[in-house]
Amino acid sequence: MNPSAEILRAKADWVWRETLAIHRRAPETRIASSLSPIEIFVALYYGGVLRFDPREPLAAMRDRCIISKGHGSICMYPILADLGFFPKEELLRVCEKGSFLGGIPDPVIPGYETLNGSLGHGLGVATGIALGLKRRGSARSVFVITGDGELHEGANWEAIMFAAHHGLDNLHVVVDNNEISMLGHTADIVAHGSLVLKFAAFGWDTEEVDGHDVALVQSALLAQKEVADGRPKLLVARTLKGRGVPGLENAPLAHIMNPKPALLDILLEAHT
């Protein structure tokens, strides 16, 4: 039985607080990029979308989740700890010597599948995995979480064409569409226009939702997972970079900004 929308919202609020607390202790982490996809990860991991076993992270029965925007997934640390992939005490050691939880996640962390190198390659990796599973007759699905800025990279569009050509309906792309990359708004660098229309033109099943409405994200992912019509799936999640942090939320340079420790203390106190 899948959790209620109220439970999912409460879990997303908790992950938001925990992500701020991690950044307060480890300012090397990319906070703005890690606040926009929280509801996406909560829907995936708590909403009954992904199959996984925390006791055996590489179990054959698992769905694969490829986190292409690794730097923007510090919010995954509390999720994985909460689910039992590793002890919660590790959250207090992020970026410390000897900790496997760094400022940029690594596959040494239980629950992370791959190291994708520079941004823009997670989709290609996920497409290869999806093809391999498909040819082995596996019923497992592959999810890839990418930022919209990554879609400026041409390798993504090769993978998008390849996935449609090979009928990879076990492949799901979720775009954290916060519309801001490292040096400003993506529309000012290379405008995407409608990602929904672009992917659809390449033969994908597409949908767009409010990426901060965790119940909508959950229901869209669950519905797409039930469809096996030969088309790979796209979910565009409209989000805000740095969500919930004054001065950081939706700021053009949010990617490289760190909120003041005093502000973090105020926010953490207010949301205790």
Give a written overview of the molecule.
- With 272 residues, the protein is an alpha/beta fold.
- It has a single domain, classed as 3-Layer(aba) Sandwich (Rossmann fold), CATH 3.40.50.970.
- Helix content is 38%, strand content 12%.
- It contains ten helices and seven strands.
- Strands 1-2-3-7-6 form a five-stranded parallel sheet, with helices on both faces.
- Helix 1 (5-25) crosses helix 3 and helix 1 packs antiparallel against helix 10 (261-270).
- It is globular and about 50 Å long.
- It starts with a helix and ends with a helix.
Key words describing this protein structure:
272 residues, alpha/beta, Rossmann fold, two-stranded antiparallel ribbon
Q: What proportion of the residues form beta strands (DSSP E)?
A: 5-15%
Task: Please work out how many helical segments DSSP would assign.
Answer: 10
- Count of DSSP strands: 7
**Percent helix:** 25-40%
Gross CATH architecture: 3-Layer(aba) Sandwich
- Between the first and last Cα atoms, what is the distance in angstroms? 29 Å
In short:
The chain has 272 residues and is of the alpha/beta class. It has ten helices and seven strands.
What is the secondary structure topology, with strand pairs?
Elements: H1 5-25, H2 31-35, H3 38-46, E1 64-67, H4 76-83, H5 122-135, E2 142-147, H6 154-165, E3 171-177, E4 180-181, E5 184-185, H7 186-189, H8 195-201, E6 205-210, H9 214-225, E7 233-238, H10 261-270
Parallel strand pairs: 1-2, 2-3, 3-7, 6-7
Antiparallel strand pairs: 4-5
Helix pairs in contact: 1-3, 1-10, 3-9, 5-6
